[in-house]
Amino acid sequence: MTWKTSDQFVYVVGEHTPKGTWDYFKKIGKKPSSLFSLDEIATEVKRINQELKDLSERIDRCTKPLDSGTEIPAEHKNKQTLIDSLCFEDQSLRIIAVWGIGGVGKSTLVNSVYKTEAFRFDCHVWVSISQSYKLENIWEYMLKVLGKDKLELAPEKMNSADLRVELIKILDKKRYLIILDDVWTADALFRLREVLVDNGLGSRVIVTTRMEEAASVAAKGYKIKVEPLCDHDAWLLFVERHFRKLKIISALQIYTSAVTT
What we know:
Number of helices: 11
CATH class of the largest domain: Alpha Beta
Protein name: NB-ARC domain-containing protein
InterPro entries: NB-ARC (IPR002182), P-loop_NTPase (IPR027417)
Keywords: Plant defense
GO molecular function: ADP binding
CATH topology of the largest domain: Rossmann fold
Largest sheet: 5 strands, parallel
Shape: elongated
Number of strands: 5
Organism: Dichanthelium oligosanthes
């Protein structure tokens, strides 16, 4: 549409002298077809804006984005499975593994459930593990979050044994939810389990990992493998999270207005 708007512009230079002024009017008189009245320009701008609106509507029909907040089928299924695994009918401590290749959306899935379901537990904490974890640092962080101002001694001043004792003391009497994000080895889980008390209150530990070995720590029925999206679902997700947020018409109208004024 650039070529349709470019012929609406006339650039006339007149010197600030009587001669320049006379030349200015002569040029206007010789080229009346190059000039448009304000009404004609306004009409042309309206036409262009309508074309932009029609174009945006065609894009919207072609992409068919999901309604805001709508989940694709695979994502919804995994989320519901994870929520169901938090059910308190099973009062034993359960470790739930959410696993799959890197970047497939494991942490995003768990976080979406954590935000809506954590309030059902007496206490909860999200801990990032990574490959270079230090057990004492993880316990210290957990104690800071779960113990808050109830501790007589600050966690950073405790040794490993004290951290372990205090954590067990806190978790023993509460239904807790702990997220262990980005676990790389089964050994890391075995070490962390020292403080994960099975108090018969329906506590849950959710582990995200890309390693099947680490996921094997979870019992049968408590493993959720997150698969890469198929092309169709990936496209729907892309459209939902990007195109729907663009204000195409408004942006182009502002641009057109700036060019034609």
